Automatic annotation (TrEMBL):
This is Selenoprotein W-like protein. The keyword DNA repair does not apply. It comes from Amorphotheca resinae ATCC 22711. Residues 99-108 have a biased composition (Basic and acidic residues). Residues 99-128 are annotated as: Disordered. Residues 111-123 have a biased composition (Low complexity).
Amino acid sequence: MANVVTALPRVTIEFCTQCKWMLRAAYFAQELISTFSTSLGEVALQPSTGGVFAVHLYTAAPSTTTIQKHLLWDRKAEGGFPETKELKRRVRDIIDPSRDLGHVDSHAKPATTTTTTSSTATTGQAPPVEKVAQAGAAGDDAWNVVNENGKVVIGGGGEGESFGFCRPGDENCCC
């Protein structure tokens, strides 16, 4: 078996392919590479399922051969997706706390403590979403913005052609 060398620090963006979050994951990867350039050793996209969208940062522990795993963002724990500037701040705070992020820091919110665990209780059910009809013929289901599975419709229009995205807290995400 060949030795595998991993460039550190390494960011992994794990995303749900069923939810069609690949472009969102690729956008975050592009933003991190543009901002941190060669300060990051690698940015990887990891396809997954089940409504997962998580960002991890792997760093080498000082003066050891141990690799530390930092959870930067978990969609289920945080209740949604990160703003780009918040994700950049979290990466910066671990790999180079003295680094200035320019305009991202100029409008910074007061520092908050981020943990890698969640203590919120869930019932396993996402909150109900009301179907909202847009302008169109009265009773025309093709104009609903939420489909029968409670997913936000973003495209399509014909019978069985609409696409949806998972909502935060939706454990059984399968669009």
